[in-house]
Structures are given as structure tokens and as C-alpha cells.
Amino acid sequence: MSTPSASHKRGKAVRDGVLAAAVNELLNTGFDGVTIASVAEAAGVHVTSVYRRWRTKEQLITDALLNHIDPAIEIPDTGDLRRDLVELTSNLHESLSSPQSKAMLRLASMPLEIDRLEEARRRVLDARMDAMGVVLDRAVERGEIDAAVDRRLALEFLHAPIYTRVLLTRDQVDEAYIGGLVDLLLDGVRAH
Amino acid sequence: MSTPSASHKRGKAVRDGVLAAAVNELLNTGFDGVTIASVAEAAGVHVTSVYRRWRTKEQLITDALLNHIDPAIEIPDTGDLRRDLVELTSNLHESLSSPQSKAMLRLASMPLEIDRLEEARRRVLDARMDAMGVVLDRAVERGEIDAAVDRRLALEFLHAPIYTRVLLTRDQVDEAYIGGLVDLLLDGVRAH
After folding, report:
1. d(Cα B25, Cα B63) in Å, to the nearest integer?
2. For residues B40 and B46, is the Cβ–Cβ distance under 8 A?
């Protein structure tokens, strides 16, 4: 195997720099204000270096969005479902709390007509859901939950309130809140 | 008691027309693009008629937002908690599904620094939550759920996936999905 060449490394550095600049430009000026020229200038590269990799602003923004949404949230494995779910939800909340992440969430909520964006967003969400589903798979093996439980629905149910608070109501998300959500998911409200 | 004067009625018609025009302008151009002049023109009134009621664009947009978010979602009373929750959630989804409502949700997610907006948004959310809580109060009276259940948390838990799908993932919300959410809220995932 050959080691990465110097030009390959330089290419990756340019790519990362341009994508980071694109995220910052989005934060500062919003989608309409971003241009390939403004991103190139912010990244300190020639505009042709950007056009070589991304033909349109839409492609550049799509990659910046996907590059920023890191699907690798840490997946806990404490041996106990409740603790796993509390940790997982805290990790998700932390990953959404930076100004960059919030700006990206807002961007994701815009009705942008970008070819690859819808498919790419779907792929990232799917990958994240699959990764988190492991926590529920382990709970099935331990007999804590029934195998018939719809794991994606359960995770969506648990995490939608976090998205809603971060993006919409801006109510605080703390340990007590996350604990309350997990308990509701585990036991429901019905009197037994 | 006197009946409303003609000038009072005319004033209300102007107000409603301006607020509706403000919503449309927001939909068409986004927050940055709206001006009091463009709203006045779209509403077919003189710009001074707008300035007389709203001193700033921010005040106008706040009122347009509040005027549009109608907190009066129909509250079902079928005598059965599951059916009540399914109907309530369907009603919420329906109220969020118009292009205007989606645009308003996106606007609500923007980090706008508008004086009265935060307080007004809180007031609307509180009023809506109190109205919907009646469904859970009745279930407590019937013995279907325990009085200790946190009603606001339960409703937030049930409705956050609707907001998230409408605003963020754009996955479909249908009867089966809503039924699945309600069953999760009622019984949780824990094996008994």
C-alpha cells in the first residue's frame, strides 16, 4: 500500500477548509447570501479551486451540510437500557447544541430545492438511526424489551422532543428532562 | 351596548389584510426581504396606515406570526383516551400542514432578536398545552392514567415527532404512524 501523496493531503486540506468556510458563510449570511466566490475568499483559495470540486453552490452546500452532520454519536453500552438511553439522548443533545449545529438544523428545515440534498439527508438520518438502534438490540437480547418493538419509532419518539426544544421552543434540556423522557418511553402513561 | 362602528370594522379589515399580506410576503421573500413598504403595497393600503399600527417591521411580523398560529385546535372528547389522543394528534398535524404554517414554523425556528416574540411564543404554546391537557385530565378522572403523570411532558412527547417530521425530516405522517406514537405513549417499550 502506498502512503497518501503530498498532493492528496493538500487536496483534502483544501476540501476541508472550503467546507468549513461554507458553513461559516451560511451562518453569517444565510443560504441566499452565500456565493462560491465568497466561500473561496473566506477559505483563502482561488475560486477555480472551488469550481473544480463543486460545480454549483447547491452541491457545495450539500457537502458542507453532510460534512458537518457527524453521524458518529457515541453509543453507550452500560448493560442497562435506562442508562444507555439517558446517555444516548444526552450525547445527541450535546451534538446539537453548537451554533453551527443549530444553523445546520435550520438550514435542513428550509424548503431548498437541491437535487442530492434530500437523498443525502435521508442517508445520514438512516445511518444515525441504525447506529443508535444497537442500544435497543442489546436490550432485546437482555430481555428488557420485546423484540416486536419498533426500534426506529422508539428512537424517533425519544429524540424528537430534543430537536423540537433546540430548534423551536428553546426550552432547556437538562438531565431531569432527559430522564423524564426516557421513563415515559420505557413505561408509558397507562395505569396498570 | 353600542354596535361596532363602521370605522372600527374598517380598521379591523385593514389590520387583517395587512397581517395576511405580511404572512404572504414572509412566504415569498423570507424575513430579510420583507419591508413595511412591500407589505403595505401587497395589502393595497398606504404605508402610513401600516406605520400607524406597527412602528417596526419586527412588531408587524410578531403580530402576523401570532395571528396565524391559531391555538384553538379542536379538542376531542370520545370517552376513550387512545381515541382522544389519536384525534388530537391528527388535528395538530392538520393544523401544521399548510404552506403558511410550515413557513411560520421555520420563522419560529429563526434566531430573530425580536423583543416581544419570545414572550408571545411562550404564551401561545402555554395556551395550546393547557387546552390539550384537558384530554389527559379526563383520562385521570376515568382512571385510565395516574394523576402523577406529567401532562405537559406527555403531550410534548406525543407531538414533538409531528413537528420534527413536518419541519425537519419530511417523512410522511399518516394514521398508522400516529397510532404507533399513541400506543408508545400509552404503554412504553418495557417488557412486562
Report:
1. 14
2. yes
Q: Nearest-CA residue of chain B relative to A99?
A: B111
pLDDT digits (tens, 9 = 90+) for A102-158: 877 777 777 766 666 777 777 777 888 888 899 999 999 999 999 999 999 999 999
DSSP 3-state of A191: coil
Domain ranges of chain B: 6-68, 81-187
Question: Between these two residues, B61 and A162, which has the higher pLDDT value?
Answer: A162
B150 touching chain A per CB within 8 A: yes
Question: What's residue B4's pLDDT?
Answer: 63
Tell the CATH superfamily of the B6-68 domain: Homeodomain-like (1.10.10.60)
- Tens of pLDDT, residues B136-179: 999 999 999 999 999 999 999 999 999 999 988 888 999 999 99
* CATH numeric code, A70-187: 1.10.357.10
Q: What is the ipTM of this complex?
A: 0.79
| Domain at B81-187: CATH code | 1.10.357.10
CA atoms within 13 A on the CB side of A104: 24
Mutation choice for A interface testing from B156, B189, B192 by most A CBs within 10 A = B189
Sign of CA dihedral A67, A30, B160, A172: positive
Q: Which CATH number fits domain A6-67: 1.10.10.60, 1.10.240.10, 3.30.479.30, 1.20.1290.10?
A: 1.10.10.60
d(CA B47, CA B36): 7
- From first CA to last CA, the distance across chain B in angstroms is 63
Q: Does A72 touch chain B (CB under 8 A)?
A: no
**Which grid coordinates belong to A149?**
418493538
Looking at the complex, does the CB of residue A156 fall below 8 Å from at least one CB of chain B? yes
